[in-house]
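Protocol step 4 of 6: structure prediction from sequence.
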Amino acid sequence: MIERGPELEREIDEQEKLRILLNNAEDAYGFPPYPILAHELSSWMGEDQHQAEKEIVQAALTNLPAIHLRRSNYDWYQRMPALIGNVAWVSDAPIPVPALTAEILAAHVTVAQTPSAHS
């Protein structure tokens, strides 16, 4: 996470990086037309998908390093190469993927019928 302010550099723990990422995503969705579409985009077959989204994001972030980097003059980009160079980007965390069942597909996919030449 980067921001402007008094100098700071610290590691971010698992729970905090999840909270920061989910809050930042919600902030980004405040722009039109998202508020009008929010309910439709966050539900699937009548069920709220926020918990599923949180679990997917958490699985993707597990065991990945995160740094809170604050600089007073926007020069954070000069520190980034050293931070990235010191990181081993390996995670054995499984990433959950919702299963597509025949019922879900049947409810949401329409197959067009092609008229036959003999009709």
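Step 5 (inspection) to follow. Helices lie at 14-28, 34-41, 50-61, 76-85, 102-108.
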